[in-house]
Amino acid sequence: MADDAAALAEDSRLAGRRWSRRIFGNQPVAAILLCAMLSAAAVAATVSNLTVQLPAALWLQSLTAPDIDDMRQVLVHYAFLPRLAVSLLCGAALGLAGTVLQQVLRNPLASPETVGVSAGAYLALALATLLAPSLLAYGREWVALAGAFVAISAVFALSWHKGLSPLSVVLAGLVVSLYAGAVGAALIVLRHEWLTSLFIWGAGSLGQQDWTTTLWLLPRIGAAALVIGLM
User: Fold this and answer.
1) Per the confidence metrics, is the pTM higher than 0.85?
2) Which member of 56, 162, 185, 217 has the lowest number of beta carbons within 10 Å of its beta carbon?
3) Which pLDDT value is given to residue 27?
């Protein structure tokens, strides 16, 4: 009887593990629960803030066809909702960038900061603003992308002789990031009157007053996510 009970308990334990793997895959349950809790807290804070600004009965109208005579609906439609959408899109883009770097480099420590991508983009914008401002007419995102590409190329060059091992990539990325960050900081100290806007670019801004930024980001992030998902 004792052996049968032990066998039954073991079967139940294995069945529980199989059920857990079927639902959660290889992801740690604690991480999933933490993400769920943070998401629930963010949703609760958003709903609470929106409720203070506008009654729930007017939410749909303020999104689709706001009454221009009702300042509350105008503020929600042209300020609150665009900023909420931009914050969600930017968060998704940052998460997607980090995930792609970790998967491509097979390195759980890889991120735009640890491989020098962010610092390279920042330095490229600073140099373009001071030395070739005409390049910014084509779009600051292209200048930043070029700087990020140069930075990641330098990281690969420095870590190539180590076979692009995870440790060598991170160390090379930190070297490139610190070097680019130091040069960028020096330029800001010397030419701060020309580079003030870079502070806003580096920290980000949620000062949107319409849906222009959202409509600009949405198709680009969606297309990038689709291409990455098909790879």
Assistant:
1) no
2) 56
3) 56
